[in-house]
Amino acid sequence: MTKRIVVLPGDGIGTEVTTEARQLLVEIAALLGVQWELDEGLIGGGAYDQTGSPLPEETVAKCLEADAVLLGAVGGPQWDNLPGDVRPEAGLLGIRKRLNVFANLRPIRTWPGLMLASPLKPELLEGVDMIIVRELTGGLYFGQPKARVEGGRAVVDTLYYTRGEIERVVRRAFTLAQARRKKLTSVDKANVLESSRMWREVVNELSVEYPDVVVDHVLVDNAAMQLVTRPNSFDVIVTENMFGDILSDEAAILTGSIGMLPSASIGGDGPGLYEPVHGSAPDIAGQGVANPLATFLSVAMMLRHSLGYPEAADAIEASVLAVIEQGVRTRDLAGSGQAWVGTKEMSQLVRADVQRRLA
Ligand SMILES: NC(=O)c1ccc[n+]([C@@H]2O[C@H](COP(=O)([O-])OP(=O)(O)OC[C@H]3O[C@@H](n4cnc5c(N)ncnc54)[C@H](O)[C@@H]3O)[C@@H](O)[C@H]2O)c1
Ligand SMILES: CC(C)[C@H](C(=O)O)[C@@H](O)C(=O)O
Ligand SMILES: [Mg+2]
């Protein structure tokens, strides 16, 4: 059956990396001999400029009918002074909510060829292979009220969770851990936040149903430290929306660059949403130097989780590994004095390798 994929390029380097990923998808479809319908939609600052909304209803409708959605990134300084509800980021939060993708999987591994691209000592990076399960449609990002109050002299953001919202994402994390090294680290701030105390309670209650999984609870400040002092001790991490956002950018350093970190947002009845963890990178946008690999690896996750082509997903991951091992680097991965290639050349080399593997 024809699969429908909607690409939402967004802003800044989002458009550059999704152009390459779209090409990768077109080539893979040809190699697999399948027909995929590829469509595009507006989101973010560009969507606001064209339609007055960072998430036009037309985009939502297209996504709801798709089998999978690939998103680049949104945002940029030109939209930073807009009211919160029409900022580009509101478009991103909106599509996550509308697709009900409450579990954001952010796998973090080290690549043998890239140990020196990380500022951490190579011996610390040996064997790092973890996945952060970030709650994505609740918590501090979505709780109401969220407003200036008392005539602008005070402000409130709300961290709100229902027990059910915590339970469903924690269950995903337990299931993932069962299929991996059976270790689940729940990260919270239970020494201060009531929401975290409930989070911890739910994790402990559910742990009885997953007796083969070893659970520990780590406070988020300590977790931030342990991510760089003993990163290979983690298997699956599950945490609240904002904690997960912050910890995953920190964990990007383990891989060498945020340009290497993919993600899959799943859990809804509709399509999964696949996006690199990085943003629109206004500092390098338009220069052709963005690393497209986080988006390629997100395409691999899409092929595995939403489209049912695990062998094509394996091929992409193997090709990324191979090209890196050949010494090819984008600028973010290159050491000082080391040669690097632009977005298009990296894309072309990986795509050529994928072609060889799937031919
Ligand atoms: N998923 C998303 O759409 C998303 C995620 C994060 C930030 N943002 C938005 O992006 C804008 C910029 O945010 P920021 O600067 O804090 O974060 P960012 O991730 O865009 O950039 C942080 C740093 O990493 C570099 N970088 C990021 N991706 C890269 C890539 N693929 N290749 C090479 N280098 C890369 C950038 O050049 C920059 O120096 C903001 O408007 C923010 O809201 C969007
Ligand atoms: C742009 C922003 C709203 C977004 C988030 O915080 O979820 C980003 O940082 C991410 O990690 O996907
Ligand atoms: Mg982030």
UniProtKB/TrEMBL annotation:
- Known EC number(s)? 1.1.1.85
- Gene3D superfamilies xrefs: Isopropylmalate Dehydrogenase
- Could you mention a single GO BP entry for this protein? L-leucine biosynthetic process
Pfam families assigned = Iso_dh
What GO MF terms are annotated?
3-isopropylmalate dehydrogenase activity; magnesium ion binding; NAD binding
The principal location of this protein is cytoplasm
The entry marks the following residues as binding substrate, namely R96, R106, R134, D221
Cite the binding residues for NAD(+).
76-89, 279-291
Q: In which pathway does it act?
A: Amino-acid biosynthesis; L-leucine biosynthesis; L-leucine from 3-methyl-2-oxobutanoate: step 3/4
Domain of life from the UniProt record: Bacteria
Localization annotation: Cytoplasm
Q: Which reaction does it catalyse?
A: (2R,3S)-3-isopropylmalate + NAD(+) = 4-methyl-2-oxopentanoate + CO2 + NADH
Q: What GO cellular component entries does it have?
A: cytosol
Instruction: Please tell me where Mg(2+) binds in this chain.
Output: D221, D245, D249
Positions in coiled-coil regions: none
Keywords, sorted A to Z: Amino-acid biosynthesis, Branched-chain amino acid biosynthesis, Cytoplasm, Leucine biosynthesis, Magnesium, Manganese, Metal-binding, NAD, Oxidoreductase
Q: Which family does it belong to?
A: Belongs to the isocitrate and isopropylmalate dehydrogenases family. LeuB type 1 subfamily.
Quaternary structure annotation from Swiss-Prot or TrEMBL: Homodimer.
- PANTHER family named in the record: 3-ISOPROPYLMALATE DEHYDROGENASE
Functional note? Catalyzes the oxidation of 3-carboxy-2-hydroxy-4-methylpentanoate (3-isopropylmalate) to 3-carboxy-4-methyl-2-oxopentanoate. The product decarboxylates to 4-methyl-2 oxopentanoate.
The protein's name is 3-isopropylmalate dehydrogenase
Provenance organism? Alicyclobacillus sacchari
Question: Gene name, please?
Answer: leuB
